[in-house]
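Continuing the series of single-chain predictions for the mutant panel. This is the parent chain; the variants come on the following pages.
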Amino acid sequence: MNEHEQLVDRAARHAHTVVFLGGLDAGKSTLARATAAFALRIGRSVAYIDADVAEKTVGPPTTVGMKHIRSADDLTLDALAHADALGFVGSTRPQDDLTALIGALQRLRDRARTEGADLLIVDTGGEVSGIAGELLKYYMVDVLEPDLVAGLQRGQELEPIFGIVDRFFGIEIARAPVHPDVVTTSVEERMRAHEKAMAGYFEGEQQRFRIKPTVFVPTLPPLYDLQTLDRMLVGLSDGRGGFIGLGLLGYVPQDAGLRLTTPVAEPPKALRLGSVRLEDTYRAKRVDLRNLFGTE
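Parent structure:
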């Protein structure tokens, strides 16, 4: 067995929650899927949480997605793309709303356990350097409470995070080099992949709903110019703390109102504003809601 096969074997047989860490293009998703496949073959009940809000395996960009793996068919990329449950972060940069990301992880972790998952596999994003990367991974490990952290690293790049995991949590760490099958992608290639994934989410049959300005969080200021919300991304609340999908706001000049476009047939109970505006190409442009609302 090579190092990667040993890591998969350890995680699939013995872990109850395993978190995969690594920088960009490290092979985290490859090993997470391999772990799920092996665990399934030996009879374990598996749930896969995709905590990467940019390079998505489960669910659309700007979300945390959870998928129950009940058969090998669930591990195809097309099947994984359709989440069983979503948490809305509202950005492809986790540091834009760390509170939303950690809250989504906790809710989806609890839901996966309640729905019978014996093994929880968590695939994370490539933010591993500097203060932002260290704090992000610290809070992820804190809320997920894994019994195994699996790191794929180039050189010693994850050692600061491993040190934090060891000092603060005393959790077992499994180290391995970057997976040999990894294909390195450029920034522009990743951006095009984000656009393609978001465009794919909004293609096909769409529902359109008229939206009242009272259904948002954050709450819109009095007499707010709704035109500034044109093409803003929103999360569709199920009214029970979770989200049923994404929507795109559109300004309707004829009645100075808002329209929601979404592939989700069920009308949302409320809407949470994200911090991105989608251009016509579906490229996400970051928006600071405090500046947008003129508030602190």
